């Protein structure tokens, strides 16, 4: 007992000394922060990043692989969250037809609301959009509504549109407490439905909310724009879950089907009514299933480097093949390899008019010869994936140029350039060259190799972190240009550039003043002042250099989307190895979501990794 009391006294003394040392360390950190503030230009306190609590990390790459074709052993989840039921409009919010107020049944009123919300959008001025909308809206009407409403031009949705605008403004004007309560509500839903358990490990779900009903927009001039996307109910949904797991109960009705298929990684599926496509509830990009798929994709692209020289040799020889089909395949492969063009899947009349390599038409290309250096040029201009315009003028080999001329003979502008080639036949040939080879593998290989080569060429150990980041972004930009990853200039771009110019101008004035003071100190032979102003000049020059790099980087990135290639085409191990080799913090290159997605690469890649 006496010993226990002595031990307790000792512990109390230890705790007191710990508290004192803690308070001392706090005082020291406060003093150092104050000194840091005094040394810099701004007296503001620096924000200290608080470390986020570590989530459970599943190092699946260290485990034994599952049997071929098996995606999981056990799977549990709560099912998808269905869109909330429609809330009818208040009685004072009216729809008008031909200048007169008219009551609509709930089904027709809901669809009218979808249109009313879009009155300020250019879609509602498009003939195709209005035609499709009116046709589908009439299907939701009662017989008497159909009889009355026969002309969209006589419909007045303005009061409904105004009501929804007011509701939006009310949400924006909510108090902090109201917003927090709403967030807490959403967080509770995410906590319950946003996660699943795969083989005993908690995993995030990417899209656990079923898309609500509305009007289809599509990309570009889509022929189905304006059609009604119908509400998805439990009866439309197939649930995929482990055999021993509890099947989640739907809020209303019953599920279409319950499966226990461990050869697929989706948790739920349904067929949407616009294109008849199957939609899936999938795991988050950071999950094992998605990460494993990424890892395999980049390993397949790395495998191509063993075969690429022979493939290039073969298609170059095929430029002179006797069969026209083989020549066309060779030129198409040349474009896919050198320009990272997509193969281009066959589309039907109900899809937007976008093309890839195999579906190029004569109207998409122009040939020219620059006689001074005898350069053979091909100019491309077409709408690629997601209706993004591809414009590029490139120099090609003489044989490629001559073949294109040959393929164009006797054809009209609307005719296919490669009339003897299909995506299916091209992919079949690629698979013969290397197991699992597709145009996308070529694209991934060339994108990743370009990044590796550009980083090797642009980076130096002597560079500052800012210079290294500029080198990285320029390497990433070279890939984005190769893959035609464009974006519209951000709305805030001009303002950001203006702010940067102001900061640079202010910093230049500050530098001028400090240099004057340094000159004076030298004149007065004041060694103490001279050293002080020398340090100040160096600090301001460094700050100015950083701002100039920032300006350069922002300007060069104006219309280039770096994120697309970073997420989908660049082996993350190249980036991680570069960061580790050149001592650049990974969070300067990847944000939190990207770091979660590429956790396997961050753990796996060493500084000497080569693609």
Describe this structure in words.
The chain is of the alpha+beta class and 611 residues long. It folds into four domains: 75-83 and 175-284, DNA Topoisomerase I, domain 2; 95-172, Orthogonal Bundle (Arc Repressor Mutant, subunit A); 308-433, Alpha-Beta Complex (Topoisomerase I, Chain A, domain 3); 447-604, Orthogonal Bundle (Topoisomerase I, Chain A, domain 4), CATH 1.10.132. The protein is 48% helix and 10% strand. It is built from 19 helices and 15 strands. It has helices at residues 2-39, 106-116, 127-139, 143-148, 158-172, 176-193, 288-304, 308-317, 324-339, 398-408, 423-433, 439-458, 465-482, 493-523, 527-556, 562-568, 572-581, 592-597, 599-604; strands at 75-76, 95-97, 100-102, 155-156, 195-198, 201-204, 214-215, 228-229, 238-240, 257-259, 268-271, 278-281, 365-370, 375-383, 389-396. It has a four-stranded mixed β-sheet with strand order 10-9-11-12, with no helix packed on it. A hairpin with a 2-residue loop joins strand 2 and strand 3.
Brief descriptors of the model:
alpha+beta, DNA Topoisomerase I, domain 2, Arc Repressor Mutant, subunit A, Topoisomerase I, Chain A, domain 3, 4 domains, four-stranded mixed β-sheet, three-stranded antiparallel β-sheet, 15 strands, 48% helix, disordered N terminus
Can you list the strand order of the major beta sheet?
Answer: 10-9-11-12
- Tell me the number of structural domains: 4
Reported for the largest beta sheet, the result is: 4 strands, mixed
Number of helical stretches of at least 4 residues: 19
CATH class of the largest domain: Mainly Alpha
Radius of gyration: 31 Å
Helix content: 40-55%
Low-confidence stretches: 1-53, 346-351
């Amino acid at each position: 007992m006496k010993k226990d009391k002595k031990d307790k006294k000792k512990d109390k003394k230890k705790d007191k000394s710990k508290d004192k040392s803690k308070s001392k360390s706090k005082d020291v950190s406060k003093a150092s922060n104050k000194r840091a503030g005094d040394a810099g230009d701004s007296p503001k306190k620096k924000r200290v990043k608080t470390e986020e609590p570590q989530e459970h990390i599943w190092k699946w790459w260290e485990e034994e692989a599952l049997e071929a074709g098996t995606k999981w052993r056990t799977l549990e989840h709560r099912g998808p969250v269905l869109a909330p039921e429609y809330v009818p409009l208040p009685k004072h919010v009216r729809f008008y037809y031909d200048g007169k107020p008219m009551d609509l049944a709930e089904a027709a009123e809901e669809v009218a609301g979808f249109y009313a919300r879009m009155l300020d959008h250019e879609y509602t001025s498009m003939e195709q959009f209005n035609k499709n909308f009116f046709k589908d809206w009439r299907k939701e009407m009662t017989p008497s509504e159909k009889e009355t409403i026969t002309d969209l031009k006589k419909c007045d949705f303005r009061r409904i549109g105004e009501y929804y605008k007011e509701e939006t403004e009310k949400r924006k004007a909510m108090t902090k407490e109201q917003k927090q309560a709403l967030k807490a509500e959403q967080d509770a839903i995410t906590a319950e439905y946003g996660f699943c358990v795969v083989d005993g490990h908690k995993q995030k779900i990417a899209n656990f909310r079923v898309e609500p009903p509305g009007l289809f927009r599509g990309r570009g001039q889509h022929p189905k724009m304006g059609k009604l996307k119908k509400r998805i109910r439990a009866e439309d949904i197939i649930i995929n879950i482990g055999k021993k797991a509890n099947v989640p109960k739907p809020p209303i009705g019953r599920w279409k089907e319950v499966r226990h298929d461990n050869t697929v990684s989706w948790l739920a599926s349904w067929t949407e009514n616009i294109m008849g496509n199957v939609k899936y509830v999938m795991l988050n990009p950071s999950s094992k299933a998605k990460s494993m798929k990424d890892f395999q994709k980049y390993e397949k692209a790395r495998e191509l480097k063993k075969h690429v020289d022979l493939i290039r040799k073969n298609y170059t020889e095929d430029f002179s093949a006797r069969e026209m089909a083989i020549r066309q395949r060779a030129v198409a492969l040349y474009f896919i390899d050198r320009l990272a063009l997509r193969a281009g899947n066959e589309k039907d009349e109900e899809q937007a008019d976008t093309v890839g390599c195999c579906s190029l038409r004569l109207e998409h290309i122009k040939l020219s010869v620059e006689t001074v250096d005898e350069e053979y040029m091909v100019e491309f201009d077409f709408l690629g994936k997601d209706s993004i315009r591809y414009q590029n003028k490139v120099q090609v080999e003489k044989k490629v140029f001559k073949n294109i001329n040959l393929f164009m003979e006797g054809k009209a502008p609307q005719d296919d350039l490669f009339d003897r080639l299909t995506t299916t036949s091209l992919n079949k040939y690629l698979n013969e060259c290397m197991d699992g080879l597709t145009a996308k593998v070529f694209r991934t290989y060339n994108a990743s190799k370009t990044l590796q080569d550009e980083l090797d060429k642009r980076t130096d150990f002597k560079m500052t972190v800012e210079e290294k980041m500029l080198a990285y972004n320029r390497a990433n930009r070279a890939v984005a240009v190769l893959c035609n990853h464009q974006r519209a200039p951000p709305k805030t771009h001009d303002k950001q550039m203006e702010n940067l110019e102001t900061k640079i101008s202010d910093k230049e004035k500050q530098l001028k003043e400090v240099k004057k003071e340094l000159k004076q100190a030298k004149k007065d032979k004041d060694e103490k002042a001279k050293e002080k102003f020398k340090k100040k000049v160096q600090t301001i020059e460094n700050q100015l250099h950083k701002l100039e790099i920032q300006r350069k980087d922002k300007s060069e990135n104006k219309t280039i989307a770096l994120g697309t290639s970073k997420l989908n085409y660049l082996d993350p191990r190249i980036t991680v190895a570069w960061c580790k080799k050149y001592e650049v913090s990974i969070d300067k290159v990847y944000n939190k979501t990207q770091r979660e997605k590429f956790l396997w690469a961050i753990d796996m890649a060493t500084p000497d990794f080569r693609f």
